[in-house]
Write a structure and sequence with these properties.
alpha+beta; four-stranded antiparallel sheet; 6 helices; 17 strands
Length: 279
């Protein structure tokens, strides 16, 4: 075969245009771009798409945000309920994240029970918030062993064009920075009295949780992957930082093994993205 960027000449003289070649040979199509240190959408390998954050998009929610990374978009909303804390954590509240991936955002997802991708993403985000110490969950306690707040952060992906994880975590940061809970007390009869003096409990973040995700293809690292790049990648790495140079978490997705050198490169590249999001 003979090839150019515009068409592919096959044996027998038949030609494929670039779009047909991309569909028939997606890996080779991506490889040829990456070999030139550029990507099919025109970005260089370490470049992220434009990110837009719009807080307060759902007026009925306790807190909310819309986030767009390129054409990927999510909407997050927060509601608060009161629950009885477990014995092992009597003076702590709880934050639970639920991510919805439906056919609205991609034909790869079906209606019905949550997909494995949605469950993995929900669990990761919930664990990250809890284990990173970004939020002091004792502030959510109303009365030890008796009552505490649980914050439910529901995230709906409206368009999955790649890297939903980063969009979802950015939305979580925005929502948590907006929350102010009413002042309440637990009465002897078990009822809750809500004060109307306007004094609330502000949930302050000890530090941000800023994501920077990378897809690895043929040993090359691409930042903020598109959905096509995610489908072809060997694996994906998300480096979460606080925006001040501290790494809070490193999360690997995919079954193929990674090397220390690749992870080290991802960490080095993540600093730029963290600063962009922190500015």
């Amino acid at each position: 075969t003979q090839s150019t960027w515009g068409h592919e000449t096959l044996l027998g003289g038949m030609e494929l245009d670039a779009d047909a070649f991309r569909k028939l040979h997606p890996s080779e199509h991506l490889r040829r771009f990456l070999d030139e240190n550029v990507r099919p959408d025109g970005r260089h390998l370490g470049q992220s798409r434009e990110t837009v954050i719009v807080p307060g998009t759902i007026t009925s929610a306790l807190a909310s945000a819309m986030v767009r990374i390129g054409e990927t978009s999510v909407i997050a909303g927060v509601k608060a309920e009161i629950f009885v804390p477990p014995e092992e954590f009597p003076n702590q509240g709880k934050i639970a994240v639920n991510v919805e991936l439906t056919p609205l955002c991609s034909p790869n997802f079906k209606l019905g029970r949550p997909s494995e991708d949605a469950q993995v993403l929900s669990n990761y985000l919930s664990d990250l918030i809890t284990q990173s110490g970004a939020v002091d969950t004792t502030l959510l306690c109303i009365k030890p062993s008796k009552a505490a707040w649980v914050l439910y952060i529901d995230i709906y992906c409206t368009d999955d064009q790649g890297n939903v994880l980063d969009a979802a975590l950015i939305a979580v940061n925005s929502c948590l920075s907006q929350i102010s809970l009413p002042r309440v007390e637990l009465l002897d009869d078990g009822n809750i009295n809500t004060f109307t003096d306007g004094i609330g409990i502000t949930i302050s973040l000890h530090h941000l949780l800023l994501p920077a995700s990378f897809a690895i293809f043929d040993g090359k690292i691409v930042a903020d992957p598109t959905v096509e790049e995610e489908q072809l990648m060997a694996f994906k790495v998300c480096v979460v930082g606080d925006g001040n140079g501290t790494i809070c978490n490193i999360h690997k997705m995919g079954q193929r093994p990674s090397s220390y050198a690749i992870i080290k490169q991802c960490i080095a590249m993540a600093g730029k993205r963290h600063k962009e999001l922190h500015s």
